Amino acid sequence: MAIALVTGGNRGIGLAIAKELQSQGHEVIVTYRQGTPPEGFLGVEMDVTSTSSVEDGFSRVEKEYGVPEIIVANAGITRDTLVMRMSDEDFIDVIDANLTGAFRVARRATRGLLKLKRGRLIFVGSVVGSVGSAGQVNYSSSKAGLVGMARSFARELGSRGITANVIAPGFVETDMTAELDDKRRVEIAQSVPLGRFCTAQEIAGVVAFIASEKASYITGAVIPIDGGLGMGH
């Protein structure tokens, strides 16, 4: 099995992905900005908003464990607010973490993947990258940008056996959505054709499939995990 690197893999969706890849037999390394890695996982400190931090993190991984073959660009932030209240910093910081951060990670990973002549670049996007979301102009823009990025990586690296895909989750059961009041949760669920939120485990299962040999001929794709919320986009 392969070495997998999951950015922001110390909690939430990233941790679920790390656990699923580990259950499939991969050696999983999670990145985190502060604190310690989750129990049972190898970890490396990495701040995706810093090119030097990404470089140092990858160099350490390659030296201590080997070249990561599966890259899951999951780390990201939100700064939700209505557009009239959104500052330049609110927009720039989210783009830097979610879009430019994913680029920094994928660019550095490519160095090792080209030597291996195989690999998986998996970007964690969002349904709002296609359908938009009030109060999330910055976040939606960052996730939409991942689609063009992944497809460009797919075209540039496909001849070397490297695939690049985006998964696009919808509303997910997380600590953040758990804080919503019951009325708002019902409203959201009613907007989804399947009538419920997605679980982190359902997202992780799709990531594990894309990382597997069964998905070796899938590249440049946007794979929705949204209960039908974004259909037609």
Plain-language structure description:
- With 233 residues, this protein is an alpha/beta fold.
- It has one domain (3-171, 201-223): Rossmann fold (3-Layer(aba) Sandwich).
- It has eight helices and seven strands; from the N terminus they run E-H-E-E-H-E-H-E-H-H-E-H-H-H-E.
- It has a seven-stranded parallel sheet, with helices on both faces.
- The longest helix has 29 residues, at 88-116.
- The relative contact order is 0.14.
Can you summarize this structure?
The protein is α/β, with parallel strands linked by helices.
Largest sheet descriptor: 7 strands, parallel
**Rg from alpha-carbon coordinates:** 17 Å
Assign an overall shape.
globular
Question: Tally of extended strands?
Answer: 7
CATH class: Alpha Beta
Question: Would you spell out the secondary-structure blueprint of this structure?
Answer:
Blueprint: E1 3-6, H1 12-23, E2 27-32, E3 42-45, H2 51-64, E4 70-73, H3 88-116, E5 119-124, H4 128-131, H5 137-157, E6 162-169, H6 175-178, H7 182-191, H8 200-211, E7 222-225
